[in-house]
Amino acid sequence: MKFQEIVSSHPLVLVDFYADWCGPCKMMAPALEELKKEMGEKLKIVKINTEKNQALSAQFNIRSIPTIHLYKDGNRVVEQAGALMLPQLRELVGRFA
After folding, report:
1. How many domains, in total, are found in the chain?
2. Which band of pLDDT confidence, cut at 50, 70 and 90, is reported for residue 62?
3. What is the DSSP code string of 14-53?
4. Catalytic choice (7, 13, 22, 48)
5. 25 catalytic residue (yes or no)
6. Which residue among the candidates 25, 68, 83, 93 is catalytic per the annotation?
7. What is the pLDDT of residue 94?
8. Where does the pLDDT of residue 1 fall: very low under 50, low under 70, confident under 90, or very high at 90 and above?
């Protein structure tokens, strides 16, 4: 499935650009899991490993990780670099849920 098909496959999609070696990415992972539990079917979370998907990372000009993109109805509405904790993620996603 192509990237645009993925972000268009659900009304609200959060894309997490990360790498396995990234400390802040590891710190943010539990918050993303909790957010998914809280939001249930309202939110789809997609994790993109920047090292395994270098072309996609370059296409979106990912310069630091973690970087979050939030898509509403297939359109990117948020681009946020840096680790976010659960309250910040809730607020960010809540604006569009």
Report:
1. 1
2. very high
3. EEEEE-TT-HHHHHHHHHHHHHHHHHGGG-EEEEEETTT-
4. 22
5. yes
6. 25
7. 95
8. confident
Here the CATH number for the domain that contains residue 66 is 3.40.30.10
pLDDT digits (tens, 9 = 90+) for 8-53: 999 999 999 999 999 999 999 999 999 999 999 999 999 999 999 9
Other CB atoms within 10 Å distance of the CB of residue 29: 16
75 pairs with which residues across the strands? 72
Print the domain residue range for 25: 3-94
Residue 5's H or E segment, with its range, is helix 3-8
User: Is residue 88 over pLDDT 90?
Assistant: yes
- Separation of alpha carbons 15 and 13, rounded Å: 6
Is 55 annotated in the active site? no
**Encoded tokens for 51:** 């090292």
